[in-house]
């Protein structure tokens, strides 16, 4: 039944599977049932070089179009996404393995960022600054960079691309997108919709380019001086490689890398809210979000009570086909992820961890692939090495604290710095958590979990998370170059700092 439904989805999204060839095509298999979805054509190095040239040529045309007109094109893309939300959401769910509701939510993120970008297209503002010289006007303006390279990860196969692309487009840039080789079909579907809008409006197709393949394409992009900005989402290891390559050529990079996110649960918390936030953060997308909750840091006075409630709630989690909306959790992305999950649990045991909710593989008629696992909860010492690493799996670590300062220190004492949260009804605790002595993460929430962000705020983190910002607020500035301009409308040439120069 799943294959029939998905075949209809692919047809409506105009996805055509190419004939398989080990040298020229890339196959996508669903972690839901292990079935082949489709083949896409892999991008050769020659094709890549051609697409970069075309993107640069298209930039010459695209940047001349007034920003509000570019915003109108993005508005139409958002309309196209709305029309295909259910099909795209189902495809995201089937190809990546996240729940159907999360698949719909990911498409909604694309729609939302298009709406945000449309409004932004009538702003892109610069400052006017007071000049120290008489009859001079000084201001700043912003110009597009050129070609923006986007490298996205499997866990959000389309949303993170849209965060970058929609903003980059209204800023006047063209885009080259390399999606994860694990989720190429959703990328093809989005590209089809975008190209249809471009064709309708007589916009050069190369304003949006799609390349398909493995990490070698990302390496080409990172080293390509024709691409002034690389926005890369993925592991810290990958991000360091990209950052070094881009920095060598003095390019720009936006890096959204690993997360090791914690929720501090104080004795003044609303237990119901904290429980729901903790569970969704830990098991949403089967723990494969960069914002997934990895650690719960719980006050000693409520530790046992909250642990028991957590164990009881975990017994109600439904695991299975993510296209069935009754299920909370689908599969991991592939068997390599499963092995990482299993080895992490074994490492927890070696480091003195106590399993509170047992993990393990799931098999049987309700689990038609080998990628289904049980969400796991482990009591771990805060100093254990494994808790300082990011594991993309539904493994949640429990830790105990006595003072808020101790809890914040535990939270911050990891290499990553993406998302953080505190659950408390105490104003002083909340403000301390948000103060300069509090969370060191790029995202700090109060009475909200670590997972799930609105596009209106700038998204990103610190330390080994990379320091980049995408999506809302003034993140658009990363996709443009700043130009300071001074105009002299006097009949003299006064110099700055009062310097005298006469002939």
UniProtKB/TrEMBL annotation:
Name the catalytic site residues: 256
Domain annotation Aldehyde dehydrogenase: ranges: 21-484
Supply the alphabetized keyword list: NAD, Oxidoreductase
Q: Name one Pfam family in it.
A: Aldedh
Which leading EC class covers this enzyme? oxidoreductase
| PROSITE patterns, alphabetized | ALDEHYDE_DEHYDR_GLU
Superkingdom is: Bacteria
Q: Does the record bear NAD in its keywords? A: yes
EC numbers on record: 1.2.1.3
- Subunit info? Homotetramer.
By sequence similarity, the record places it as follows: Belongs to the aldehyde dehydrogenase family.
**Protein name per UniProt:** aldehyde dehydrogenase (NAD(+))
């Amino acid at each position: 039944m799943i294959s029939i439904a998905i075949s209809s989805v692919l047809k409506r999204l105009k996805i055509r599977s190419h004939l398989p060839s080990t040298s020229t095509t890339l196959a996508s298999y669903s972690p839901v049932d292990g079935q082949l979805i489709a083949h896409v054509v892999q991008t050769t190095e020659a094709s890549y070089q051609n697409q970069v040239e075309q993107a640069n040529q298209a930039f010459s045309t695209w940047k001349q179009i007034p920003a509000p007109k570019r915003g109108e094109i993005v508005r139409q893309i958002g309309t196209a996404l709305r029309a295909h939300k259910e099909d795209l959401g189902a495809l995201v769910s089937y190809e990546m393995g996240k729940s159907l509701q999360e698949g719909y939510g990911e498409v909604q993120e694309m729609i939302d960022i298009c709406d945000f970008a449309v409004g932004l297209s009538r702003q892109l503002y610069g400052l006017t600054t007071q000049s120290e010289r008489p009859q001079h006007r000084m201001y700043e303006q912003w110009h597009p960079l050129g070609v923006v390279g986007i490298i996205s990860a499997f866990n959000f196969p389309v949303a993170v691309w849209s965060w970058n692309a929609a903003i980059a487009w209204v800023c006047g840039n063209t885009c080259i997108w390399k999606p994860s080789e694990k989720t190429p079909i959703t990328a093809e579907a989005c590209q089809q919709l975008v190209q249809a809008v471009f064709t309708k409006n007589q916009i050069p197709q190369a304003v949006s380019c799609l390349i398909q393949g493995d990490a070698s394409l990302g390496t080409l992009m990172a080293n390509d001086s024709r691409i002034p900005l690389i926005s890369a989402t993925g592991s810290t290891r990958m991000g360091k490689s990209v950052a070094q390559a881009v920095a060598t050529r003095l390019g720009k990079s936006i890096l959204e890398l690993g997360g090791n996110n914690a929720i501090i649960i104080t004795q003044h918390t609303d237990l119901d809210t904290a429980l729901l936030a903790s569970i969704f953060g830990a098991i949403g997308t089967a723990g494969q979000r960069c914002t997934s909750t990895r650690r719960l840091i719980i006050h000693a006075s409520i530790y046992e009570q909250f642990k028991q409630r957590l164990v009881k709630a975990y017994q109600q989690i439904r695991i299975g086909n993510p296209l069935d909306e009754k299920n909370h959790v689908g599969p991991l992305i592939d068997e390599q992820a499963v092995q990482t999950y299993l080895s992490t649990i074994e490492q927890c045991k070696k480091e003195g961890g106590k399993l509170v909710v047992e993990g393990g593989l799931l098999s049987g008629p309700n689990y038609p692939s080998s990628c289904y696992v049980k969400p796991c909860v482990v009591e771990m010492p805060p100093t254990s090495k494994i808790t300082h690493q990011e594991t993309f799996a539904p493994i949640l670590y429990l830790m105990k604290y006595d003072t808020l300062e101790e809890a914040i220190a535990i939270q911050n004492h990891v290499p990553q710095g993406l998302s953080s949260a505190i659950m408390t009804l105490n104003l002083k605790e909340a403000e301390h958590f948000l103060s300069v002595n509090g969370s060191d993460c790029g995202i700090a929430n109060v009475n909200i979990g670590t997972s799930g962000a609105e596009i209106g705020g700038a998204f990103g983190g610190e330390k080994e998370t990379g320091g980049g910002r995408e999506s809302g607020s003034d993140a658009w500035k990363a996709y443009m170059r700043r130009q300071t301009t001074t105009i002299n409308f006097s009949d003299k040439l006064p110099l700055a700092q009062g310097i005298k120069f006469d002939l």
